[in-house]
Write a structure and sequence with these properties.
144 residues; alpha+beta; Thiol Ester Dehydrase, Chain A; 38% strand; HotDog_dom_sf; UPF0336/Enoyl-CoA_hydratase
């Protein structure tokens, strides 16, 4: 079992500058061809004024914090035994090309259930105006 003393452990904010090329690349990779993600002219004439990111682009701007968590040597996670459990998202603001997103994380849960260990990280992502754009919880199962 992972030591519960790590509940509340924080991971420093990591900054990600959202660029339209990465938004387009992500949208194509996941097969979401919404013109607001891909067509600069259509996006420019929309209420957003420029290319916007698909909601689950949150996984891109949270990536470094997630890596720091999974690779945290003090947690002693057995990487080959980790399985993605689930994730949940709350979206508050639209993320646009040109935004600078700072994401920080904290360990929210550590528990054991049916012989498996569970650990979850909560991330909060804030834009350059100080507005929360996304809150997410990432749960992992550690098999024995």
């Amino acid at each position: 079992m992972i030591d519960p003393k790590f509940i509340g452990r924080k991971y420093s904010p990591m900054t990600y500058e959202v660029c339209k090329e990465k938004i387009k690349e992500y949208a194509r990779a996941v097969g979401d061809l919404n013109p607001l993600y891909l067509d600069e002219e259509q996006a420019k004439s929309s209420q957003y004024g420029r290319i916007i990111a698909p909601p689950l682009f949150a996984a891109i701007y949270a990536r470094e914090v997630l890596e720091n968590w999974v690779l945290d040597s003090e947690l002693s996670l057995n990487l080959p035994m980790i399985v993605h459990g689930e994730q949940e998202f709350e979206f508050f603001k639209v993320v646009k090309a040109g935004d600078v997103i700072a994401t920080e994380g904290r360990i929210a849960e550590i528990y054991e259930k049916k012989g498996l260990n569970f650990i979850s990280l909560e991330t909060i992502s804030i834009n350059q105006q100080g507005e929360v754009v996304t809150r997410a919880v990432w749960r992992m199962v550690i098999r024995r």
